[in-house]
Design a protein that fits this description.
Layout lengths: L7 H10 L18 E4 L7 E4 L6 E4 L3 E5 L5 E6 L3 E3 L16 E3 L3 E7 L8 E6 L6 E5 L6 E3 L19 E9 L10 E9 L12 E7 L28 E8 L2 E9 L7 E9 L9 E7 L5 E10 L2 E11 L6 E11 H17 L11 E3 L14 H4 L11 E3 L3 E3 L3 E3 L3 E9 L2 E8 L3 E7 L5 E8 L8 E4 L5 E5 L3 E6 L9 H6 L6 E3 L4 E3 L13 E3 L9 E6 L2 E3 L5 E7 L11 E4 L5 E2 L1 E3 L2 E5 L15 E10 L2 E11 L1 H6 L5 H7 L5 E3 L4 E3 L24 E5 L4 E3 L3 E2 L2 E5 L10 E7 L2 E11 L4 E6 L2 E2 L8 E10 L2 E5 L4 E5 L8 H5 L7 E4 L6 E4 L15 E6 L2 E3 L5 E7 L5 H4 L3 E3 L2 E2 L12 E5 L7 E3 L1 E3 L7 E2 L4 E4 L2 E6 L2 E3 L5 E7 ...
Parallel strand pairs: 18-23, 18-24, 37-44, 47-56, 48-57, 61-69, 71-77, 79-86, 88-95, 96-102, 101-103
Antiparallel strand pairs: 1-32, 2-3, 3-4, 4-5, 6-7, 8-9, 9-10, 10-11, 12-13, 13-14, 15-16, 16-17, 17-18, 19-20, 20-21, 21-25, 22-23, 26-27, 27-28, 28-29, 30-31, 31-32, 33-34, 33-35, 36-38, 38-42, 39-40, 39-43, 41-42, 43-44, 45-46, 47-50, 49-54, 50-53, 51-52, 51-55, 52-53, 55-56, 55-57, 58-59, ...
Length: about 1900
């Protein structure tokens, strides 16, 4: 793109930079049949267009364009960037002319279809953000083919915004081509563009413009903005910064939707819709109306023109703005505006503004003129609206309505909605909304404009939707998100396979087509017009065709019956149509329909599928079919009675007759059947039909005990009933199941009287292998092969006494019914069943045995729990109650801790004294058990506590020392400080425990308590004090380097209470950072896990110096980690660094220090004693200050004098130090920065004998050649020595200056604070009308004619009335002549050629010409350029660097004046205020110290020649000045000095009283007298000179307040001076301004004020000056330099502010500067000057030295202020510094340098950079500002021309014509062109009129 404008070499470079083009193969298309998507390069993608003819899609993004098929296959892909560009430059971009150009991304701003016509197939319009937003046309069939592209665009072809963030919209329209005579059929295709304001690039492109698309016949250009095509004229582009959202054509109008700040009303942001007639080329019809979306949604984000209820409507998604900003929040809504209502509102606004002056019937303003243009609403005839619906030349425009068009949100969202499109389905409006998280919301818009969201699809997670479009078939929505294009179906009806899911999606597109059995759109269902045939999904009352009931609902699988279905909402069928029933997967059966009932035959039993094993039934669906379509389905259950009994073997009969199915039991057949009869004649019917369960044969209970002991022969007895049904002789058998094995026992039967049977099973000895007390075993009865039912839950409980009962007490604790006893037989005593014990069981158990006691000590008071373990400790808790003693003291057992036989827990009781003894446990009457361990009652003591204070938040570790602290268990040990716990943190020893304090809710003293169980101990007479938490108020510095060790000084309060302060750094490894980045889309919790698991800290301990200060060394941090935070841990108080300073603590890479001998590191560095060692490095001051750096040379210190970012200077000892390294004799230089230690190499001191006399000279060779060689060597050596010495001096001077500045730093800071307080008061005045700027006329007068008493601007033409008219006519003709360029240049050149034409004359003529041509500044500029070109020509031949150095020619003064004119507004708006602040700061500072009124010398100054060196005793005095304010007199305090003269006092009083007023508007000090008032009548008029003046010899002293002894607080008043006033001041009415010296001199007296002038009149003048020079050449004593430095430091900020205001490019430099610098660059190029220094000098001579230095030295040229000698002296130094900053020569100072250069030695390099950046920024900014310059000059000509006294200037000029008349005439006649124009003749005519001069006419 624009390749033609880029040099081939650069083009190749750019091609190499670009990534390889991506191929369609890179594009991924999903296989998902529902949502297809394609991933595309160029995120964020911004525009999507659909070609309705071919169905192709076009996508525009960053640097990429795509053409895709409807199925998202890529057809073509074009790269549109990045290219070399800059928003500041105009295309074509030439790198040489545009240094700011960088490879820039091309954001797609517009993508539009230009429809085809006839043979013309149309095109794709593509506009990007590059090259000021120019556009191309591309082929619709293949976007790779360019139809139109410009390689050299003109400024009318800049279409889109050049800033990616600024919106651009457009619409293509076609109208009749009337203007261009197209005749019939002639069409004009235009593009209306709306774009926001961009701060860079051309700033004059209106918000709405019309661009030509077709026809384009030369000289017309495509996309150009032509005057006749129309644009929206705007008063202020930046104020009316419209954020455009949409442009649409509708009917005969074009509509724009945008948001911007409401400039008419509340200045809040709101959305507007504006309208233009399509045919209106002049924008007369422009009208706009605010759109109100209720609920605070004020910023439009997207829009679509669709239909609603058959009418066109504008669908707008709006967001709520963040406060009063244009930033959209997530809260958003869809609002719908009917186009008819919108048009009515727009028409109403137009009508009110045309015919009612903007006010409606109520008198309220309804319409007004917007965009700050000079039009207003009118009262035209009422027919105006109908006659001029699109406005006319006479109608007001642009019109805005004050009345908004309101709408209630249709849909609201908490996620920002970004795009909208709509569709109409079956008469319903559906809105599709895209949101900022890549979701597509589907909303049904109801007829009342309310909305119903029915679906939300996630299209592309976490990326905002940019564009939405429906395809031609309205079947799919294309969703454009940041990186992909997705094709989403509008509905997924076809995915719903059944009616229920179809209706449940509640999708307006979907409905269930009953007879077709599918979910479809309405028009796809054939019988959708008939009731119950298409059921709409969105209608809540609709329900599917359902089977309400089914009779019978269940039946046996062995039967076949008629089944009746009752169906709801059955659709009507024709007579020829029928339904069928389908059971499961069986073949269909015909169905008979009767009203809502349908009857079918159930399937034959043999056809039914088998029932699943483990179940007794199956459920088969019964489907009602229409052909192959299932209309509805019911469920029918088929059961199997046989399976019911099979599934319950233990009680088959019970299960059969109790089941939910209709099953009956045949006991003799052992069969469960659905039949009502059995083959064996006996039946037990289902419980529903008879008594049921009571009839079943059943074993219902165990007559014997269910508990059966193991290993003993036992008989089991069962009882049964209803067994008489069995008549055969089959025997009964008892069956017992143990662990899977059946034991069959024969049973004898006995029938009892109550018709029950008793079964006695044969005896058996039961066994089981499981080691447990009890085992549950199944038991049942069998008769032959039949199993008799048994009651559920009937089981035998087998048990084993020996399992788990290990001792006597446990055995006897088993419940009695088990019969377990402790048998003491062989082989060992154990627990058995009582009948199994061969010997007599023991009545009592053995004595208890104790194996362990815990703890073995306790406090005297008891209260701790003692745990005793062992055996035979009783069989229940009651056995041990009262039977436990510890060391002879009863210990009551606790029931909750007791375990049978094995454990007793008792609570220790008080013993009263220390004692020791065993633990005894007694159970019953048996002897007591005794422990081997001894238990000790102890008396623990607390002796000491350290520390005794800590912060209230806790965290202090207390060490408690004592005796016998290991009393009881650690769990019994607890410590408290008052009520708060103190947590034990280390292992407790017998003599020490450590606990950490918790937080307390208040400060104060608390007692430490330690609890040993219930025993409490305290430290005698020691308390712990909770003190206020430490508070950190400051911690500096705020940065360190990775090596750490930098001292951070922390100040605050209560730091002394902290036991161990720590500085901690939280670091995170870089890998975790990577993991985090990879998981940034994961859940927050997952992030939290990553975060927590890697929280690593590095810490260092801090040292507390006092309660208010501590120091911390920054911890060392690895460069591989990221620092996440820094905090101070003060016990439990954590203080994050951010909370102290409001900014985070920063870690930087370590500073680098380079070895002293970089080229040869092994060679020692040679050092000359008396100098300094300069160490080079990088980033030395980034996290380090000079005071912190230590340097050591060998065993001695090298005193660090200066540290800057790249250099460290240290002064080593005079004598070479010793080495500290045994391996080397020479000392090495080591630099220490925190933990960083750098060895910079060895240093060797030089001897002083540099000039070694060669041996050749000593031998005395006579050869002349040797003498010459020797001389040369000596010269070279001396030169080297001198230059080295000079460099050392330079470094030393810099060091001394810096040391001095640091010494005066504190004083400067105090002075500066005072000054800033004063200036703050002042800035409140300056902000308003307080800046005393001179009006333009006075400014021009002072600049054009400096030093002239009455300048021509103020004079009138002094002529006799009789001659006035003739002379004025002649001067007018002269004016016409001056407007002839040839005449003017010949005139100037002729004057300059005359010897008598002095330099002053040249300046005067130039200023007169400036006055005369002020109304034609464009012409003046052209002439000036032409003359300057001649000047360049002259100097190039001589020495180009000298050009413009002085003002020696007319054109140089013209340039000065031209700059002054062009920069007046810059002075007024930008530089004036800092200049005034500097002046006030200087004045304030100078006046604070004594100023000699005779010599002008001051104590506070920057100028050493104006420095009052003598020490003057002075003190500040505050006078109360009475000021008359109207009628009342108010006292006003004024600060003066007692050494001030009376005139100085008057000036200071006037300064205070007339503080905000311009100097010219306040009374002169000479016109007022100062009156000292004391008491009632004491009025004394004070004066500089009166009879009381002190005279000593030839000297008379000027009177001061000290002289009159005026006290502090005295009352004075300024009164008008009366000429006849008597009294002492009658003789001398004098002040500082009155030259009194002459009068006094005559009397032989000389005046003095503070010091007597040292000038001796006897010394000749030339001698005086040389003596003075010599005096000054001596180094200034340090005390005086300190004064100058103090003044400099105080004023530094104000000097910086002025320099920055003049030289900053943050705001665009004045157009005149850019224009003139551009001109100088052109001149240099034209004359082949490629030395940048020359061009730099030209620029410096033309702007800083020519204009700014003049302003800096003479602020009175711009400001209405008074400049005294002392202020002037300071300004001179500042101006000189400015001059030094603009020079290119290297700035070096030595001891003999002028003081002003020394003062600013450190600042000048910084200012130089400022100047160089200013020049380079202007050079690299966009060139071609000629057009802008011309419009500025035109504006200036009109603005100030009336201020110029044109005729006076012409009359003055004529005087020069008259003086050199003959020479001028001759010069004009010699020129051939002049002859043709008759210039000489015309000048003679002028002479005749002006002077009555007789000519050769």
């Amino acid at each position: 793109m624009l390749a033609s404008s880029i040099p081939p070499s650069l083009l190749l470079f750019l091609i190499l930079l670009l990534p390889p083009p991506s191929h369609p193969a890179d594009v991924i298309v999903t296989s998902d049949p529902v949502v297809r998507w394609v991933e595309e390069h160029g995120a964020p993608l911004s525009h999507l267009v659909l070609d309705p003819e071919a169905g192709h899609l076009y996508v525009g993004g960053v640097d990429h364009l795509y053409q895709l098929t409807p199925d998202l296959e890529v057809m073509a892909h074009v790269k549109t960037g990045p290219h070399l560009d800059s928003p500041d430059c105009l295309p074509p971009i030439v790198p040489h002319d545009c240094p700011s150009a960088t490879p820039t991304q091309n954001h797609n701003k517009l993508l539009l279809l230009e429809a085809g016509q006839g043979a013309w197939s149309g095109s794709l319009i593509v506009c990007g953000s590059l090259y000021q937003g120019i556009c191309d046309k591309r082929s619709l069939s293949n976007i790779s083919q360019l139809i139109y592209q410009t390689s050299n665009p003109v400024d009318t072809q800049y279409v889109a915004a050049n800033d990616p963030r600024v919106s651009t919209v457009a619409v293509v329209i076609t109208t009749d081509n009337k203007q261009e005579g197209g005749g019939a059929g002639g069409i004009l295709r235009l593009m209306l563009v709306g774009r926001g304001y961009t701060s860079k690039g051309p700033g004059d492109i209106p918000p709405i413009t019309t661009r030509r698309l077709f026809p384009v016949l030369p000289p017309r250009r495509a996309f150009s903005q032509e005057e006749e095509l129309g644009k929206l004229v705007v008063g202020s582009y930046s104020e009316y910064n419209n954020h455009f959202v949409k442009a649409v054509a509708h009917g005969n109008h074009v509509y724009f939707l945008f948001s911007r700040r409401d400039m008419w009303h509340k200045k809040e942001y709101r959305t507007y819709a504006s309208r233009l007639c399509t045919s209106d080329r002049s924008f007369y019809s422009y009208v706009e109306v605010p759109l109100l979306c209720r609920g605070g949604y004020n910023l439009a984000q997207g829009a679509w023109l669709g239909n609603h209820a058959g009418e066109p409507a504008l669908f707008v998604v709006m967001a709520a703005g963040q406060a009063s900003t244009p930033v959209a929040t997530g809260r958003s809504a869809l609002c719908v505006y009917g186009m008819a209502k919108l048009d009515a509102m727009l028409r109403r606004a137009q009508e009110v503004c045309y015919t009612e002056g903007g006010r409606g019937s109520s008198g309220q303003e309804e319409a007004y003129i917007e965009y700050a243009v000079s039009s207003k609403c009118l009262k035209l005839p009422n027919t105006s609206m109908s006659e001029y619906p699109c406005g006319g030349e006479h109608t007001p425009n642009p019109i805005a309505s004050t009345v908004p068009l309101p709408a209630t949100p249709t849909f609201t969202s908490t996620t920002q909605l970004t795009a909208v499109t709509t569709a109409t389905e079956a008469g319903h409006t559906i809105a599709f909304l895209g949101d900022g998280e890549g979701r597509l919301h589907k909303v049904l818009v109801r007829s009342d404009w309310s909305g119903d969201q029915y679906d939300s699809v996630s299209v592309d997670g976490g990326v905002s939707s940019a564009d939405l479009l429906l395809d031609e078939s309205q079947q799919h929505v294309y969703v454009l998100t940041s990186g992909r294009l997705s094709k989403v179906p509008v509905s997924t009806c076809e995915r719903q396979t059944d009616c229920q899911s179809c209706l449940s999606v509640r999708d307006p597109y979907c409905g269930w087509c009953v007879l077709e059995g599918r979910c479809s759109r309405k028009h796809q269902c054939q019988r959708h017009m008939q009731p119950n045939h298409w059921l709409w999904s969105f209608e809540p009352t609709n329900q599917c065709v359902t089977v309400q009931s089914l009779r019978p609902a269940n039946q046996s699988k062995d039967e076949q019956t008629q089944v009746t279905l009752s169906v709801v909402q059955l659709p009507a069928l024709t007579e020829a149509e029928s339904l069928s029933c389908v059971f499961g997967l069986l073949p269909p059966q015909p169905a008979v329909v009767t009203a809502t009932s349908i009857t079918c035959q159930s399937p034959a039993p043999e056809l039914l599928p088998p029932i699943v094993t483990g179940s007794d039934h199956m459920i088969l669906p019964v489907s009602l079919m229409f052909g192959h379509v299932t209309i509805t389905t019911g469920n029918m259950t088929f059961y199997d009675c046989g399976a019911v009994s099979r599934l319950n073997q233990s009680s088959q009969c019970l299960a059969c007759v109790s089941s939910e199915w209709r099953c009956n039991w045949c006991p003799l057949d052992q069969q469960c059947s659905h039949n009502q009869s059995c083959s064996s004649q006996h039946i037990i019917l289902n419980q529903r039909e008879s008594s049921g369960p009571t009839s079943c044969p059943l074993v219902f209970t165990l007559q014997s005990s269910a508990l059966v002991p193991l290993g003993l022969t036992t008989t089991v007895v069962l009882r049964g009933r209803n067994l008489d049904v069995y008549t055969d002789e089959a025997p009964y058998v008892c069956v017992v199941q143990i662990e899977g094995i059946q034991i069959n026992l024969t049973a004898s039967v006995e029938k009892t009287h109550d018709n029950t049977h008793t079964f006695t099973c044969s005896p058996h000895q039961f066994q089981y292998a499981v080691s447990q007390l009890q085992y549950s075993s199944a038991v049942y009865l069998r008769r032959g092969e039949r199993r008799i039912d048994i009651s559920p839950g009937l089981r035998l409980q087998l048990y084993d006494c020996s399992a788990g009962q290990s001792d006597c007490s446990q055995c006897r604790a088993v419940p009695e019914e088990y019969g377990c006893v402790w048998c003491s037989g062989s082989p060992a005593p154990n627990c058995v069943y009582n009948q199994s014990c061969p010997s007599v069981p023991a009545d009592t158990c053995p004595p208890p045995q104790i194996t362990q006691v815990l703890p073995v000590s306790g406090p005297l008071e008891g209260g701790v729990l003692v745990t005793i373990t062992g055996s035979n400790l009783g069989k229940r808790y009651q056995d041990v109650v009262g039977g436990v003693t510890v060391s002879g003291v009863q210990c009551p057992p606790q029931p909750e801790g007791y375990q049978i036989s094995t454990r007793v827990v008792c609570e220790l009781q008080s013993s009263g004294k220390q004692r020791e003894g065993p633990v005894l446990v007694t159970v019953g009457t048996s002897p007591p058990g005794k422990s081997r361990q001894m238990f000790t009652y102890q008396d623990p003591q607390l002796l000491d506590l350290v520390p005794d204070k800590g912060p209230v938040s806790g965290g202090s570790r207390l060490t408690i020392r004592g005796r016998q602290l290991l009393t009881g268990q650690k769990s019994d040990l607890r410590a408290f400080l008052g009520p708060q716990p103190c947590y034990i943190v280390e292992e407790v020893t017998d003599s020490q425990l450590v606990c950490q304090t918790g937080p307390s809710n208040q400060t104060g003293e608390v007692t430490l308590r330690v609890l040993f169980g219930k025993a409490e101990r305290t430290v005698p007479s020691v308390t712990f004090r909770y003190l206020d938490d430490p508070v950190i108020t400051d911690a500096t510095p705020a940065e360190s380097f990775y090596e750490g060790g930098r001292v951070v000084t922390v100040t605050g309060r209560n730091l002394g209470v902290v036991q161990q302060p720590i500085i901690s750094v939280w670091v995170e490894p870089v890998e975790v950072q990577r993991v985090k980045r990879r998981r940034r889309l994961a859940l927050l919790t997952a992030k939290q896990l990553v975060f927590n698991s890697t929280m690593t800290t590095v810490s260092e301990r801090c040292s507390v110096l006092s309660s208010s200060q501590m120091t911390c060394l920054t911890p060392k941090v690895s460069p591989e980690v990221k620092v996440k935070g820094v905090w101070f841990q003060l016990d439990n108080v954590r203080v994050h660094y951010e909370t102290i300073k409001g900014k985070s603590f920063t870690y930087y890479p370590n500073p680098e220090l380079f070895p002293l001998s970089r080229d040869a590191p092994d060679v020692p560095y040679r050092f000359k004693p008396g100098g300094v060692i300069a160490v080079e490095g990088q980033d030395l001051t980034r996290a380090m200050s000079r005071q912190e750096v230590k340097a050591r040379l060998g065993d001695q210190e090298c005193d660090v004098k200066t540290l800057d970012n790249t250099h460290l200077y240290c002064e080593p000892p005079e004598i070479q130090p010793m080495s500290v390294d045994d391996s080397n004799e020479l000392p090495s230089l080591q630099v220490f920065m925190g933990n960083l230690r750098v060895d910079l190499g060895l240093v060797q001191y030089d001897g002083d004998s540099l000039s070694v006399v060669p041996l050749a000279a000593q031998i005395g060779l006579g050869a002349g050649a040797a003498v010459i060689i020797l001389s040369v060597l000596v010269v070279i050596l001396m030169y080297r020595r001198k230059s080295k010495q000079a460099l050392r001096d330079y470094k030393k001077v810099l060091l001394q200056l810096e040391t001095l500045e640091i010494n005066v730093g504190d004083q400067c800071r105090k002075e500066f604070t005072d000054l800033m307080t004063e200036m703050m008061d002042l800035s409140s005045d300056v902000g308003g009308p307080g800046l005393p700027l001179l009006d333009y006329r006075t400014y021009a007068e002072r600049v054009f004619f400096p030093g002239q008493q009455v300048a021509p601007l103020s004079r009138q033409l002094d002529l006799p009335e009789s001659r006035r008219q003739t002379v004025e006519q002649g001067l007018q003709q002269l004016n016409n002549l001056l407007n002839n360029r040839l005449f003017l240049t010949r005139f100037i050149h002729t004057l300059e050629a005359q010897q008598g034409f002095s330099q002053r004359d040249r300046g005067y003529v130039a200023s007169l010409l400036t006055m005369a041509l002020h109304d034609k500044l464009e012409y003046f500029t052209e002439v000036m350029k032409s003359l300057l070109q001649d000047l360049v020509q002259q100097y190039v031949a001589k020495n180009p660097k000298l050009m413009l150095r002085r003002t020696e020619t007319v054109v140089e003064k013209m340039l000065t004046n031209w700059m002054s004119i062009c920069l007046y507004s810059f002075l007024k708006e930008v530089a004036g205020e800092p200049l005034y602040m500097l002046y006030r700061a200087i004045k304030y500072q100078v006046d604070k110290g004594p100023v000699d009124s005779v010599t002008g010398k001051a104590k506070r100054t920057l100028n050493d020649s104006h420095l009052l060196r003598e020490d003057i005793d002075y003190s500040s005095v505050t006078l109360t000045v009475l000021v008359k304010n109207g009628v009342e007199v108010q006292p006003c305090p004024v600060k003066v000095l007692d050494t001030d003269t009376i005139t100085q006092v008057k000036d200071k009083i006037l300064d205070q009283v007339y503080r905000g007023a311009p100097f010219s508007q306040r009374p002169a000090a000479d016109s007022l007298d100062l009156e000292w008032r004391s008491g009632q009548a004491g009025h004394l008029t004070l004066s500089d000179d009166d009879v009381t003046a002190v005279v000593q010899g030839r000297w008379k002293r000027v009177n001061t307040l000290q002289h009159y002894k005026v006290p502090d607080g005295a009352t004075v008043a300024l009164i008008p001076r009366s000429q006849s006033s008597g009294g002492v001041n009658q003789v001398f009415q004098t002040g500082e301004k009155t030259p009194m010296l002459e009068g006094e001199e005559e009397e032989g007296l000389r005046l003095w004020h503070l010091v007597k002038s040292s000038e001796d009149p006897e010394i000749p003048k030339h001698r005086k000056s040389s003596m003075r020079e010599r005096e000054r050449a001596k180094a200034i004593p340090e005390i005086y330099l300190t004064r100058l430095l103090s003044m400099k430091g105080t004023l530094q900020k104000f000097v910086d502010d002025v320099f920055v205001a003049i030289l900053s490019t943050k705001r665009p430099p004045p157009i005149a500067v850019r224009f003139f610098f551009d001109f100088l660059d052109d001149m240099a190029e034209k004359h082949g000057i490629d030395d940048p220094e020359t061009v730099h000098i030209w620029k410096t001579n033309s702007l800083p030295l020519r204009f700014w230095v003049n302003i800096l030295k003479n602020p009175q040229f711009v400001l209405d202020v008074q400049i005294t000698d002392s202020i002037d002296a300071v300004l001179s130094v500042i101006a000189q510094t400015f001059i030094d900053s603009c020079t290119t020569s290297e700035h070096k100072v030595g001891r003999d340098s002028p003081v002003n250069k020394l003062l600013y030695a450190r600042e000048i390099p910084r200012y130089k950079q400022l100047v160089e950046r200013y020049y380079s920024d202007i050079h690299s900014a966009a060139s071609g500002c000629y057009q802008e310059m011309n419009s500025t000059l035109t504006e200036l000509s009109g603005s100030f021309a009336s201020e110029m006294n044109n005729l006076v200037a012409l009359h003055e000029l004529y005087k020069y014509i008259n003086k050199y008349y003959d020479q001028i005439i001759m010069s004009l006649e010699e020129d051939s062109s002049g002859q043709k124009m008759q210039l000489a003749y015309r000048l003679q005519q002028v002479a005749a009129l002006v002077e009555n001069k007789v000519t050769d006419l």
